Amino acid sequence: MKLSRALAPSLLAALALAAGPTGAPFDAAAQPAAGKKVAAPRACGVSAIPLAVGNEWVYESVPPPEDRALNDAQKRTTPVEAKKLTIKVTGIETKDGVTTVALSEDLDGKVHATWIKCTAGGATFQVAPDAFWFAGEAGTTYGIELSAVERKGQSYALTAGKITALEWHDDVVAQWKHVPTAKLQPPMRNGKLELTRHWVLLPVEEVQSKLGTWKAKKLGVEFTINVTIEPAPAEPIRNPPLQVNFLWQVDGVGIVQALNSYGQMYLLTSAVTQ
After folding, report:
1. pLDDT confidence of 102, banded at 50, 70, 90?
2. Fewest CB atoms within 10 Å of the CB: 35, 54, 217, 246?
3. Which residues have C-beta within 8 Å of that of residue 257, sequence separation ≥ 6?
């Protein structure tokens, strides 16, 4: 949960949370004409989420299942849901065997930069905490800065560029502090953030979109958040209970659907991948 609606997805939230498609899953522009265009190389040779400069994914919000929908009172304490989210690969750079993929995320016209870091074959594959693919939560944070970030595990456990593991972990520990964002400032605080994330590969499910029907790998991520604040507020915050989010993934396309603990569901409605 977030301390305010302005804060970012699950990692910073506490400071305020195998088969191919059966239809036509992505834009025809993603398929270069034979003999006319050579596809750009994918970062780290990963196909689980194909990362090449120019690739783009457009998600739109859709109603969640009834058992995951929030009532009006609950919605008032959760982040504002974006109507449209566009993710683009804007750059790829490799240094000392580590590839950094620069991403741009546009939420209803508000853009922020984020990233993915990987090594060959996806042996390591870590998604930035403020990226949509980290937990299926759209948005970044303002007024919070992380430092001394330590990560244990992978955002997605890959073998030869594909998700094959049945379960894995992606734990994060970091120091955080408030930073000025306006002339009038609330009390500046700092502290420690601990995030434990357990991923599980669930049975394949069909995901339907105007692009077609996919047989997608369903990924569940359950996570707990522990945060300390200095100086301590008058009323200490309570760490949220166990949260559970879901993402649906298709090789060669990426994440085609996401459902988070805020009752927000996003469906891929347009994509250009190579």
Report:
1. very high
2. 35
3. 207, 209, 216, 247, 248, 265, 266, 267, 268
